[in-house]
Amino acid sequence: MGQIRNEKLLIAVGLSFKKVREEKKLTQEDVFNDTGIHIGRIETAKTNLTISTVYKLCSYYNIFIQDFFSNLKFKINW
To answer: Where do the structural domains in the chain lie, given as residue ranges?
Structure first.
């Protein structure tokens, strides 16, 4: 079984991380230098990030992971 990829979810996550980064007045380069994470690829939904990466970014931005997901603008269709 291949890796699951939900484009709409990745776009929503990317836009949310971009909003947080901009609110904190950080550049993509700042994030990369501090974390080693290419946030630009996440913000543009070019990569299927792991929950570990989400956790690391939430920690870096000093936000609770549950708050990040509760503020995510994404409709789940089952």
So the answer is: 7-70
